[in-house]
Amino acid sequence: MKLKTSLLALGLAGLVSTAQAAPALSPFTVQEGAIAGASANLVTADQITLRYQASIVQNFNAGTGVTSFTETGWFDATSFVNGNTAQVSQLNGFGASGYGLYGLFSVSGTISFVGTTALATFNSGSFALWVDPDLDTNLSVVAGGTPVVAAGAADTLLASSNTVLGGSQANVPLVGNQAASGGSYQINYGDLMLSALGESYFVSPPSFYLNVLVTGENESFNPILTPGNYTGLAQGDGSAGFYVPEPASLALIGLGLLGLGAARRKVK
Q1: What is the spatial distance between Cα 160 and Cα 238, in angstroms, rounded to a whole number?
Q2: pTM of the full predicted structure?
Q3: Contact, 113 vs 226, CB < 8 A?
């Protein structure tokens, strides 16, 4: 597997993003022929639509006054979109060439309550993107549980990350003590690792130094978010788009690599 210093922002479970200007999405290209059974076909898009379902477990520490949470779930890719136009592809297609894409994710952090708003800060988590060549995988999750994956034998990992970057947070509007549905959301994952198949599938941009911005709305969101202990379940729709990191971010990566090289020279 080859390490990519990519950044990934994944929106989860109806968390409304902080007031930041949405970046311009960049096109990306996949080679569908890399998937077993699929025909060779390049698809260029700027978004992937998806649906998700997640379990949320919240805990309130009366001694410290800190409310923490863990969210785990799955998402299922539904189509490629370019400029708001659905692209012809074999994703979820009928016949031998059809295939599926799905992901498993987790995120943990803390929640603070200010008036009618809950501010969620994400501190840690994981993300994994899988391909389902035979469209025979079933995904489910229950409140308080972890995702159950009835996977086909041919399912293969495309990409994964175990790093949540700073700035990953969201605002959740409250109506009384109940979370409101709808809104947009953003979570940033870093150090994305592409598998050998992932390298063959994501063919452009070649270095994959990209962020992913996911937005969407909840169909339902049933947990109570005021301080306390609870388990809940959320589900909804969204879309994921890629964009190039700001030059300052790439400069920081470069400085880090230079520092690492200097440290190695001192050890010699």
Answers
A1: 20
A2: 0.82
A3: yes
